[in-house]
Each structure stands twice: as C-alpha cells, then as structure tokens.
Specification:
Helix 8 crosses helix 9. The N and C termini lie far apart (about 45 Å). An 8-stranded mixed beta sheet has the order 1-2-4-3-5-6-7-8, sandwiched between helices. The longest helix has 16 residues. It is built from 14 helices and 8 strands.
Amino acid sequence: MSTSRALKALLLATGLASSSGCVRSYASAPPLAFQDLDYASAGSKTPWPVKRMALPKTAATYGMTRVPEVAYVELTAAPGARTVVLIHGLGSYLKFWRAQIDTLHRAGYHVVAVDLPGYGKSDKPGSFPYTMEAMADAVRELTQGLGVAHPILIGHSMGGQTALSYAIRYPGEPAAVALVSPAGFEKFSPKEKAWFTRVMSTELIKSTPEYGVWGSVRQANFQNWRPELEWLIEERVRLAKSPEFDAYAYANVRTVTGLAHDDFVRDNLHRITAPTLILFGESDRLIPNPFMHGGFPRDIFEYGHAHIGGSKLVGLEGCGHTVQLDCPEQFNAALEAFLGSVPASGTVAPPPSVEPEVSPKTPPSPPQVPGPVDAVPPATPDRQGPPTPVLPHAP
C-alpha cells in the first residue's frame, strides 16, 4: 500500500471508530459557500460584522501580482482598551473562536478575529506562500492597518506558530502572546518533512467521506464532544461541495508544507520577549503528531516553555486539541487570568496618515525541497498559478 493510501486508510479508520452509533448525516444538505458561513456566537441572531482589508505590503513582499484581501471581525471597545488578535488553526476559520469573541469583548477588550489567507471568507490565492512567516506578515499588516501598535496575539495550533513567527521577527510589537495548543515546538526530521510533503494532496482532502470528517474532527480534536458542536461537521461537509473548496484544499496542502519546514520558529524561541502563555489540553491527540511521535502533549509544550523566557505553561485536564471549544469555561478562565496580568500597552489609534513604511526585502529563495503532490493548482478565478517558495526572514 502506498504511503498516501496508508494515511487515508488511517484517517478513515479513525472516522469509523469514532462515528459508531447514530449520528446525523449532512451528505444530502445543499452546498455552502465560504462567504455564507454563519459568523455569530452560539444562539445569537445577530452576526458579527465581517470586514475586509487588502494587503498590498504582503503582496509586494512575496511577489504576488494580485493584492489579496483578508476577512476579519472587529468588535471595538472603549479608548485605551487592549487589543486581542485571534488567529485560527489549520483547516479552520475565525468562527473557531466562537466561545471567546463575545466573552473577550464583554470583558472590555478590543477584539479582532482574522481569517488567514486561504481560509474562511478571506481570499485563497494560489500564489500566496502559505508559510508561517507569510501568515504572520498578513496578520501584522492587518493590525497595522487597524492602527494597533501593540496587539496581544492569541493563536491556536497553526495560528500559534504564526504568532510565534510574528513575535520572533518583530519582538518589540506584541504586548503579549497566548499560544493555544501551538504548532512550532515539535521537531520533524528531514524524512518526516518529506513524508508530509509526499502524502498531503488536495485529492486527499477533497475525497474524505463524511464519516472520515466525523472522525478527524470529533476524535482527533475533542475530548468533550457535544451536540452543539455539530456545526463543525455540517459546515465542513457542505463546504466540500462549494466551487471554492479546491482553493481551500490547496491552501491546506501548502500550509502543511509550511508548518513542517519551519525550523526557524523552533530554533528562535529564545528571541521572544513578550509575556507568553502556553495553554493546552492534556489530552491533545494531534500534538505530538500521532503518526510519527510518541509521548505526551506536555512533553512538547514543556520544550516551548523552557525556551521562551518567563513564559507560563497551563495544561487543562481532560481537554483535547481544539481546547477553546472543547473546554470553553476552563479555557476562558485561564486566558482571562493571563490577559489580566498584561500591562495595558496595546491600544487602538487612528490609522497612520504618513507614507507607508518600506516593505521588507523579499526573502532569498530556499534550497530545493520536494513540492506538494499537487504542485500547481487547477485554474480558478482567484488563483494565480504555483506559489513562490520563500524562507523565513529576520526582523
């Protein structure tokens, strides 16, 4: 059996194992467009206001001929309020902060939740590099465009690795960093990186059946599954019928490559100067990687804690990888306790009226590494061909 088929079999087996019993099927439900995702808190009839911002500096940095736009939700607060920027993980979107957006806003924070390029309601251009450095630059351009000088970065999984890249490369900017089940601490060998590249493909993502979705979401990410979380299954199944799903699947493939090949973050954790919280579920089934590494989640997060000076490590018992949805009450209590200890330096100011700063130099080309299985995405209106590979660049 080929490696990709073996991985697929494991994913499907997980789906079968975790989906026993009666569960609702959404296979016959109509397609759902990404732009029609319901961005609102649970039980609310009032959606969050979704805005968009163009990213010309990011486009210039990475040689994109078309300027991408990101979607985001912004809930304003009183003058002088601290700003929290919520950064989602791989395969998800800002709604995965559903249990935090309104809670943090009620606590007095200026809340910004972003859909990263390739995800949610943001553009999904094939020419975006989908490295953590490019993701961090997109977040940084958004915060600067909103006039936020010192954001508090809160990133889940891939979003945590994005926040790490931001904090390492621009250490004077974040007021604090909250890393939620973050990627970026786990070490992958060259052979393991090649494995990721070889097995991940758009076809693997697109062909996952509904019971595989149930398994990968419910089994891999949660310890405390509840009926009110079924929107995660419904939206994933219905989005797969959307014409834009090809672009989303391709973004996932490229992002996995970007995650696995990002030793820059792991090797530079000591450069982070902002107050840092590492908050995770003790029963995380995704970190360490279940296909490659044994051990316990705490082993991985202890590494980050040891290398980020002054960081705080908090593990929540009986909670899984998507801890902010799995254990929202315990999570929010731990997060708010940390935020309450952060000096009030992240304020909102009017957007600058001066000339924009010069874009960072384009990073040098990296050594050749194997590309993803689908190296060139199929032509769609919002994609521009194969992405240009880049290396992380120093601040």
